[in-house]
Design a protein that fits this description.
Layout (H helix, E strand, L loop, with lengths): L24 H23 L9 H23 L3 H6 L10 E2 L2 E2 L4 H12 L1 H6 L4 H20 L6 H40 L1
Antiparallel strand pairs: 1-2
């Protein structure tokens, strides 16, 4: 039997796609709180009172993102709930999903590429800081492929989707780490102001 919403093969008469399983308000809040706290606390713990931008915030922001993704992946598979597609905003179309042993992965090929690329980009965030224009250039293949597929009716394939997802993961990590560092910096400034009151 197959899911009528996404086309995946059913396991134990239940599909874990986002279309078949609605996420409750409580689950949304828990996932959002995890997404906002795990990376921020990772950066806060590493900085230990130092200016957040004086440490390798890209590397530690990436570690925080990886820790968050590992928690969400565990929850996704243990609870059989569609938390991974929720985080990535994945459509989960089975024809655009990589199959392993005739079983569809929980994310489409492009989101799987981003997921894998986040782990691979740990090397880049530790060894070097890319200039902003290189980060923008790494995002362009995904944008161009998506635009051509949507507007020029040029069909993409799963290999190209996966590779553009991997390339896009570097700008994704940079933006996420910068966002988390800015939040951590704000928390540090607030803490200094509160301590200064006493």
């Amino acid at each position: 039997m197959f899911c009528t919403k996404c086309g995946r093969k059913l396991i134990e008469e239940k599909c874990t796609c986002l279309n078949s399983n609605s996420i409750t308000r409580k689950e949304w809040i828990i996932v959002f709180v995890l997404m906002m706290t795990v990376p921020v606390f990772t950066l806060g713990f590493v900085s230990l009172g130092r200016d957040i931008f004086s440490i390798q915030y890209l590397f530690y922001g990436n570690i925080g993102l990886i820790l968050f993704l590992l928690v969400i992946t565990l929850l996704h598979f243990l609870l059989k709930r569609p938390y991974l597609p929720l985080i990535f905003g994945c459509h989960q179309r089975v024809e655009r999903t990589i199959m392993i042993f005739q079983k569809a992965l929980p994310l489409c090929a492009r989101c799987t590429g981003i997921y894998v690329g986040i782990f691979l980009s740990l090397y880049f965030t530790y060894t070097l800081v890319l200039p902003w224009y290189v980060v923008v250039l790494l995002a362009l293949p995904l944008v161009i492929d998506g635009f051509l597929q949507k507007h020029a009716q040029i069909l993409s394939n799963n290999t190209r989707r996966f590779l553009t997802g991997i390339l896009f993961s570097v700008p994704f990590v940079y933006l996420f780490a910068l966002f988390q560092a800015t939040i951590s910096y704000g928390y540090q400034a607030l803490a200094r102001w509160i301590i200064g009151l006493f």
